[in-house]
Amino acid sequence: MASYTVRIELKEQTEKAHIELMFAMLENGFSRSVVCRRGFTYALPTDEFVYVGSEKITDLMSRVCTLLSSFSEAPVVLITGAGERCWSGLRVIDLE
């Protein structure tokens, strides 16, 4: 399975739209956290998501853009393949 990092920006985003976007992404299989080798879970920066699945990156882009079309006329989306991740300054979260 492939792992992708998805970065989203909505133009003129309201707080309500931001919350609705977060729930829509989570309901569609995206995550707001990453897990390190030692098992710690870290929260991602605002409007960043992780997706793990068998979709090709172009199919995933189409799906994300379709999902976002109800939130913004011209969303900005960046999807990168994430064979390896490294981070600094992310907040550790407890999912229990």
Beta strand %: 25-35%
* CATH C-level: Alpha Beta
Instruction: Name the helix and strand elements from N-terminus to C-terminus, one letter apiece.
Output: EHEEEHEE
Shape, please? Answer: globular
Number of helices: 2
Poorly predicted regions are none
Estimated radius of gyration = 14 Å
Q: Separation of termini?
A: 26 Å
Structural class computed from helices and strand pairing:
alpha+beta
Largest sheet: 3 strands, antiparallel
Tell me the number of structural domains: 1
The count of DSSP E runs of length 2 or more, i.e. the number of strands, is 6
Second CATH tier, the architecture:
2-Layer Sandwich
Mean pLDDT reading:
88
| CATH domain topology | Alpha-Beta Plaits
Q: Assign a percent range to the helix content.
A: 25-40%
Provide the spatial order of strands within the biggest beta sheet.
Answer: 4-1-5
